Structure formats: structure tokens, C-alpha cells
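Per reviewer request, we include the raw input and output of the structure prediction for the construct analysed in the revised manuscript.
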Amino acid sequence: MKVFNVNLYWFSLALLSDGVFAYIPDTHITDGGLFVKPSLEIGVVYDDNIYNEQGRGTSSVIMAVMPSVNFKMDDGINYYSFDINAEKGMYEASSSDNYTDVELGMNAHIEPNDTHRIDLSVKGEWLTEPRGTGKTEEDFEKTDEPILYGKNTLAVAYEYGAEQTKGRLVFDLQYYTKEYRNFYAITRRSNYDSVLLGSTFYYSTRAHTDTVIEVNVEKIGYDYNDPNEFNRDSDVYTALFGMQWEASSILHGFIKIGVQAKEFTDSRRDDFTGFSWNIGGVWRPLTYSKLTFSTSQATKDPDVEGDYVLKTKYQVEWRHYWATYYDTSFGVYKYKDDYSGISRVDDTYGYSLKINYDLTQNFAIAVFGEWDKNQSTNTVFEYDKNVVGVSLTFTL
């Protein structure tokens, strides 16, 4: 949930084969072969610093209600899915910070034959930016309620080459937009869209191991550039080389290392050319225990000031199933944000703990906590945050 902002949370969803709701196997199958999986999660947390303030911040109990439903058709080769997710959050200390988020997504995987594969993904998101983060991170009182924004993503990938051949080639196209929907005086400069074109070549070196060459270019364009500010439009070029492997069920992962260049349209901004990487994997020493790890470095555009941010991440999570109905997970992470164009370097450290218990096949309870610390060369951005909570998950 948004109020439990564990940095490792979404990393786990993306990298692991089993998601956050994987422990609840209930799925309804219609007569036509449509899989339907509805769920409802209700969470209550205590956050001792909801605005990420220096020193002693504002605390609050927050309740979140998160319904979701997944529709999927799968014939064993091709599949089509549609997801609806929503989240309603209510703050005990400040009702003006209440929020409602909605996400709609569609995915399709199509294989006309064993040589050609197509993946299509479309997602629309209507989200809120909590005060004290993003554009109000240095001063949550800039606005009297959360900032609203939308994100739209269209991604298409075409893969040529049979799985058993030595080489496979993938072409990627992604279109992305981000648009703010209130407080235009401070948000309109951050509305932008981007187009990414990329290609990845996989060459099989031995059983279940591939050499990977990945090249892409992304063009970023802003809808509005302040007359008193340098133009923020840029092109980003990335080239990575590495390997991916899945030699056994015990260990699988990937290593991609290379360079990235970010070139601004306005020569008065600082360009970047430097080291970039993306590494991750899962180690299962036991069938009921696994260690997940990832690290990456790449540039991103800042929310407020600066030319770009060089973001470096390190994350590790251990998840252990003590029984089929009971598991725990523990994660640690470190982020570094190095800003160009201004004098600012942030280091964020934290760890998280989650205990999950399946009371029945349709009902699970989880207790969790996160302890987060941000240090910065600009002390106005420093804060400590402690969050603890409990969540209940139901399925039909």
C-alpha cells in the first residue's frame, strides 16, 4: 500500500515469480475459460513522519482499502490479461491528505509460431503524490492537499528466434506520458512524454545461459519550459552487455553492465556520460527459502531542481516459508541520488520486515514495518521515518 512505502516492495513484485498475493491460490474459472481473481486488502498503519520532515515530524494513523480484480485467458501459449486496482487512503491526522488511486492495465502475449513472439502492455494510472515527496519534498505546505497526476504507458516488444536456437533478437517500443492535474503553477513544468526504442540480442552460450547485448535510445520532451529556466528536453542513450542464466531452480539472475549518455537540447545544462548497470537475481538454497538481490545505476530527471539525478540502488530481501501458511520476509536497501546542476547528494538507508499468516485459503493477515533514514548534503531534505502496520487480505 502507498502508506507503507517499502522501497523493496515493488522490487520483489517485479523480480520474483510469485507476487504479493501468491499465497492465496483462489481463482474463479468461468465456463468460457476466463480466469477471474478478485481480492480486497485492508491495511492500518502508523507513520511517525507523514511529511518526511526534519526532526520530530507529524504522525498519523492511516487506513487504506485496496480492491483489485484480475481477468486472464491462457491457452498454454498465448495469454491475455486485464487488471483493475484501486486504493483509498484516509489519514487520521489530516483528512486533506486522503487520496484515491486507480490503475487499469492490459497485457497480451502472442506466439503465432515458435519463431515469432509479441508482447503488448497498456497501462493507465490516476495517482496522488503525498505531500512531503516529489514536488513538495522540501516544503509540504506548498500545497494544501496531495498533488494529482496521471501516467500512461504503451509498450510493444517483438521477439524473433525460437527458444532453442543460438540467437534471439528483441525489438522494443515504449511510449510514456506523465501529466499533473492540479497546482499547475508548480507542476506544469514537469509534464512530459518520452519515446524509447531499443533492441536486445540474446546468444545462448550453454544450457540456460545467454549472453545479452542491449541498446536503446529514449527521447524525453517537456510540454512546457519556463522562460526563466534552461530547456529540459533530452536524449538518453544506453548500451549494456552481460549475461542471464537459469541453470537450475536454485539460482537464476542477470548481469548487464555498460554506459549511459544523457544529452540535453540546451547546451547550458550538464550532459552525462558514465557507467551504468542493472544486476539482479534469486538464490533458493532451500525450496522454502529464497534470497533476492538487485543493484542498478542510471540517470533520471529530478522532480524539482537540477539537470539530472544519477540514481544508484542496492537491495536485498530474504523470504522464508516456515510452513505452507506462514512466511516472513526481511529486506535492506540503500539508495544514492547524486544531483547535477545543484549541490545535493542524498543517501537513503532502510530495512523492512513483514510477517504473513494464511488463516484460511481465502483470508490472510500480515504485520509489517519499515525503518527509513535519508541523509543529504542539503539538510532540509533529511528525515527519519518509522512505519508499522497490519493488513488483511480477502479473496472470493
